[in-house]
């Protein structure tokens, strides 16, 4: 059987990774969700020529 200290080390590493990833996702969602919603509203807006299927020839 492996050393219990080694199990504790790996357990702590996994727990730290999961917790920090959760915190990062929470922060990113909190910071960027309003921007994402605004961009989605602009994309779905009828004033957007791409949405209407009208393309500008160059």
Descriptive notes:
With 58 residues, the chain is mostly helical. The protein is 78% helix and 0% strand. It contains 2 helices and no strands. It has helices spanning 4-44, 49-52. The mean pLDDT is 84.
Defining key terms:
58 residues; mainly alpha; rod-shaped
Count of helix runs: 2
Structural class: mainly alpha
Q: What series of H and E elements makes up the topology? A: HH
Average pLDDT works out at 84
What summary fits the major beta sheet? none
Distance between the termini: 71 Å
The radius of gyration is 23 Å
Strands, total number = 0
General shape: rod-shaped
Helix % is over 70%
Proportion of β residues? under 5%
Keywords: Membrane, Transmembrane, Transmembrane helix
Summarize the structure.
Keywords: Membrane, Transmembrane, Transmembrane helix. The chain has 58 residues and is mainly alpha-helical. It is built from 2 helices and no strands.
């Amino acid at each position: 059987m492996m050393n219990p200290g080694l199990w504790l080390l790996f357990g702590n590493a996994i727990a730290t990774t999961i917790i920090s990833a959760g915190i990062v996702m929470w922060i990113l969602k909190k910071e960027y969700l309003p921007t994402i919603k605004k961009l989605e509203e602009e994309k779905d807006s009828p004033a957007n020529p791409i949405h209407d299927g009208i393309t500008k020839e160059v």
